[in-house]
Amino acid sequence: MINDEYQETGPQTDPASDVYALVVGVGGAGGNVVNMIATSPCRGVRYVALDSDFLNLKRIQNCETIQLGQKTLHGMGSGSNQEIARSVAEAEKETLTKLVNGCFVLFLVTGLGGGIGGGVSPVLARIAAEAGVFVVALTIYPFDCEGTDRLMNARLGQDQILKQSHLVISLPNQLLTLKAEKDANFIDLYVKSNQMIAHAVESLWLNLYNPSILPLDMGMLRNAFPCGGNTSVGRMAIASAAGDGRIGCIWQEFLQHPWLNSGEILRKAGRILAIFTVGDDFKNKEMDDFRSRLNSENPDVELLVGISKDARFQQGEISVVLIATLNRTVRAPHEKNNETLKASEIPEPAEIVGPLPERPGSTVTPPAPKLDPDQIIVKKGVRWGKLGYGDPNQGLLDLQVTSLGRFDRCEKTYFEGQQLDVPTYIRMKCELR
Asked: Which of 66, 351, 385, 425 could share a disulfide with 430, CB 3.0–4.6 Å?
């Protein structure tokens, strides 16, 4: 769905422009998805399929293709070996760097379970992130019937992609079967999955690229979705409706959507990104209605909203792409309401830098504490200035004595007739001058 404002020039991609998005399909599954969504291209988007398998790339007709590992894999795949795929990608670093050069946003579409998707994608994501590109990875999980080896490969690959991306959206194919028709086949499910991916890429990019009612700021997205360290796997859902009560209809679709675990993801999410595509009749109260419904399910969630207008939408039609993640933005204490600030959210005291300020001395002399009789031992008739040993219980000056607490009544320590608890200069009868 292209905004009419740009239809005079058509939806053709212009990679030489200052701002453009790059949609890369990695591996067989990723390449097939990008080949399909490139049939209806968006303005400002470049579509590329990346693979080592020559036959897979030969079937790609609607977008650019790049073959990796021609000298090492000789036109074949990696045999589901992610380490081999990763080494091939590292060897092709110059090619991948040139691919992402000048890109504004990278949409990385990859099918997990094999080798190329899980091995090449983390390397491409890292190279793009190091070049300052905002990386959105859409990872397609295999069906359960594809076997435990492919599922394990998928988990390993996704863990590596998480470390190198800003936003990772997991798309489990198996969950689509929960709401599918009984006679639905694999092709139907793949088409539905591909359509959702295409819609998500289009909605997010058009909000960033076109003048929008409520645009998504790239700085805000980078703060909300930092690369690597704070990344968590997100889930995505898309819903459309028209006419009266359309927000309610969309919300019910989200609560029943398989990729949101029938609403469970909504209730546990720490942050939600909602991208609205609307017509001329979208009202502010509808946005308030959406937020109210979300707060009723998850009052602590952080909501990021983008609203784009599409003149091709029929009267009363709206569409919402919803992306939910577990993590949320950490705010400073002064940015929160004191009434809602939880004890667990109070930050640690800031580290003190530099020397501590001098504390002024006290001008009041406290009185000497009252001492027990056995805390003061006074010896009469001691002659000072002459060395020698006398009574081991040497006399003490009647000065302030600090209590030893529970050690007050402990037995005194004697060695060769001397009490070692008494200071040496007193035991030795040394006169202090």
From this structure: 425
Please name the fold of domain 1-231. Answer: Rossmann fold (3.40.50)
**So where are the chain's domains?**
1-231, 233-330, 368-433
- pLDDT, tens only, 152-162: 888 999 999 99
- At 193 the three-state DSSP class reads helix
Helix (H) or strand (E) holding 56: helix 54-58
Q: Tokens 């979300």 identify what position?
A: 294
**DSSP-derived secondary structure for 305-341:** EEEEE-TTSPTTEEEEEEEEES--PPPPGGGS-TTT-
State pTM to two decimals. Answer: 0.69
Distance CA 154, CA 162 (A): 12
Amino acid sitting at position 353:
V
Per CATH, the architecture of 233-330 is what?
2-Layer Sandwich (3.30)
Retrieve residue 352's tokens.
Answer: 């003190």
Q: Where are the beta strands (DSSP E) in 149-291?
A: 167-172, 233-242, 271-278
